[in-house]
Each structure stands twice: as C-alpha cells, then as structure tokens.
UniProtKB/TrEMBL annotation:
This is CHHC U11-48K-type domain-containing protein. Residues 6-33, 40-67 form the CHHC U11-48K-type domain. InterPro entries: TRM13/UPF0224_CHHC_Znf_dom, UPF0224_FAM112_RNA_Proc, Znf_C2H2_sf. Keywords: Metal-binding, Zinc, Zinc-finger. One of its GO terms (molecular function) is zinc ion binding.
C-alpha cells in the first residue's frame, strides 16, 4: 500500500487520512467517537481494518490480508531459502540458578511487625 494514499477513517467518514498516519489517527479518533467504536470490531489479520461487528465474519472470510494455508504450503515448499517459512519454536527459559525455597529454609526471616525495626544478625 502506498503510504501517501488517502484512506477513509472508519469512525468519521469525513476524515481522509494518509495510509502511513492511519494507525495514529485510529487511536485518536476512537477516543473521540466512543459510541461508533463500540459498534466496530477489529480485523484479526490487519488492525487497520475496522468493520461493523455484524460484518466481522464476512470480513474475516474475505480479508485481503488473510494468508491461506495453501499459500503457506506453496511458499514453504519452494527451494529458494529466502521464500521458506521458518518454523517458530517456543522460547525455553534456562533453568534457574537460584532456589528461593532453599534460601528461605536456610535463613528464616523474622516476622514482620509494623512500626518496629529488626537489627539482628543472621545466624
């Protein structure tokens, strides 16, 4: 999409916004038009698409930004490494180096009493 192309605001049909500024405008205009905003739903494929809630299923079925499974298969099966889809693996957290339960058992904390101070040494 051409960033300088004018697009119509879904909240106010009189607003013509450059495509590159539309996300910023949508945030501002949504706040100013809360009644209309409650009637619109956001497309799961492109957050710039705001459609009436009654038409969301139709929009999802026909959205131009929807990527079909057939396209993914064709793209991933091509020999060119640039066109292959990389498998996304879930990030694994490294094992912790600390064990708070063991530290708590080894060094028990004194009970908290509001308004008092504790200056004792740990044994």
């Amino acid at each position: 999409m051409d960033p300088e192309r004018l697009v119509q605001c879904p909240y106010d049909k009189n607003h013509q916004i450059r495509a590159c500024r539309l996300p910023y405008h949508l945030v501002k205009c949504r706040k100013n038009n809360q009644k209309i905003a409650r009637e619109l739903a956001t497309c799961p494929y492109n957050a710039r698409h705001r459609v009436p809630k009654q038409e969301l299923k139709l929009h999802i079925a026909t959205c131009e930004n929807k990527v079909s499974p057939e396209v993914l298969e064709v793209t991933s099966s091509r020999g060119d490494p640039k066109n292959r889809i990389r498998e996304v693996t879930a990030w694994q957290c490294p094992p912790p180096e600390e064990d708070w339960e063991a530290d708590a058992a080894e060094y028990p904390a004194p009970p908290f009493v509001f308004g008092t101070s504790y200056s004792g040494e740990r044994s």
